[in-house]
Amino acid sequence: MTRAGEFGEDGGGDDILAAEYVVGALSAEERRAVAARIDGDAEFARLVERWEANLAPMQDGFEPVEPPASVKRRLDERLFDVTAASAGAPAARGGLWHSLAFWRGLAVAAVLAVVVLAAQPYLFEQSEPQTNRLVASLAPRESDVHYFVVYDARTADIGLSHVTGERETGRDFELWVVEGDRPPVSLGVIPAGSTVHLAVDQALRVKIEQGAVFAISLEPQGGSPTGQPTGPVVAAGDLRDI
Amino acid sequence: MTPHDITKLIVRTSLKDRGAFDLLYRHTSAKLFGVCLRVLRDRAEAEEALQEVYVKIWTKADRFAVSDLSPISWLVAIARNHSIDRIRARRAASADLAEAVDVADPRPGPEALALAGSERVRIFQCMETLEKDRADAVRGAYLTGESYADLAERFGVPLNTMRTWLRRSLLKLRDCLEA
């Protein structure tokens, strides 16, 4: 009996072939043939897609398992030709910190994430801030790290209140001020504690008062060895006056 | 992170935004590694497969735009299909088959149970309409990538019988899903 005859007998035809592919029971050879068909036959591809959607709730049966960090490192080497030696170099282009799209997205996310009921956004055209204190909610980004920031212009002090999220053993959180597409400027490693303070120098005061964005990255203990963020952004947000 | 957030990351990845790709990896790699491990049942091979899966995601992220799947389902489908292709390429040792019986978990996970009552559990209700061993065969293929040959051996039936079983089960599922 031919394969076509079997399909005919079952009355399924292409739709059942699509289902067999999605469910995963076909042999290597059959899967190759079906994959080629998906690429060249849009109607058949739609059948496959519908079965993928129908069976997708069964994906809940896959328990997440954290892969070792070495996998991402090898992936980056493979895709971006990043070697371990140059991975942390500030000159590495095209990364998170140099992506305009990232910062645009971040600006949008930050606006949405601000939990403070700010009456008015800070207008940097104003020569003097109307209030002395600016606040920001540094909301988690693919992490559970959440800090609340209060900047006091009068005393040039940043107060950080730890809301959620612990640093991993042997790692530190570092706070950055980011102005547009410029390289981030470090405010230093965030000391452990529920409420901590960081001093701000004059140059940074100007940036902060002109509406720069805050971001927290995960760094090796003691802070970034390069002066630029090397780890992932775990929280970010911008300031609103109160 | 919401499905909408993941969608944005996939779209930005399709624009070759490495930052978005890194975030996407951080947020989704555990789920996809779980898929690779479940199907391949070998840690080193699953790690290799996971890399290949993300290479595919990086190069084919633009295809997500024309998919109706939820973002996480789309990503899992890539990982699952890749892992199944990989396991087909390797000869199934009998030890693997024995292990597969243990690994195939017929119960819906906690997430699935939490969704009870929603439209998403339709497939689980439809699976209930199948005889138990037929439903196990569908799940075995879906979650652990068992082939017709593997399933025939596990259930002790001829290959063609297994094909007929599974196809009939899939037809029944389709009728139930469309009802």
From TrEMBL, chain A:
Classification via InterPro entries: Anti-sigma-K/W_factor, RskA_C
Single Gene Ontology MF annotation: sigma factor antagonist activity
UniProt-listed GO biological process terms: regulation of translation
Annotated stretches, region: Disordered: 219-242
Residue ranges with Low complexity bias: 220-232
Domain Anti-sigma K factor RskA C-terminal: 106-233
Alphabetic keyword roster: Membrane, Transmembrane, Transmembrane helix
Keyword hit for Transmembrane: yes
This protein's GO CC annotations: plasma membrane
Pfam families on file: RskA_C
KW GTP-binding (keyword) present: no
Transmembrane segments: 101-124
Database matches in PANTHER family: ANTI-SIGMA-K FACTOR RSKA (PTHR37461:SF1)
Record's protein name: Anti-sigma factor
Naturally occurring in which organism (per UniProt): Aquibium carbonis
From TrEMBL, chain B:
Domain called RNA polymerase sigma-70 region: residue spans: 24-91
Residues covered by the RNA polymerase sigma factor 70 region 4 type domain: 122-173
Pfam families per the UniProt record, alphabetical: Sigma70_r2, Sigma70_r4_2
Superkingdom of origin: Bacteria
InterPro entries associated with the record: RNA_pol_sigma-70-like, RNA_pol_sigma-70_dom, RNA_pol_sigma70_r2, RNA_pol_sigma70_r4_t2, RNA_pol_sigma_r2, RNA_pol_sigma_r3/r4-like, WH-like_DNA-bd_sf
One record GO biological process: DNA-templated transcription initiation
Keywords per UniProt: Sigma factor, Transcription, Transcription regulation
Example GO molecular function: DNA binding
Keyword Transcription regulation: yes
Family according to the record: Belongs to the sigma-70 factor family. ECF subfamily.
PANTHER family listed in its UniProt record: RNA POLYMERASE ECF-TYPE SIGMA FACTO (PTHR43133), RNA POLYMERASE SIGMA FACTOR SIGZ (PTHR43133:SF62)
Official protein name in the record: Sigma-70 family RNA polymerase sigma factor
Taxon lineage: Bacteria, Pseudomonadati, Pseudomonadota, Alphaproteobacteria, Hyphomicrobiales
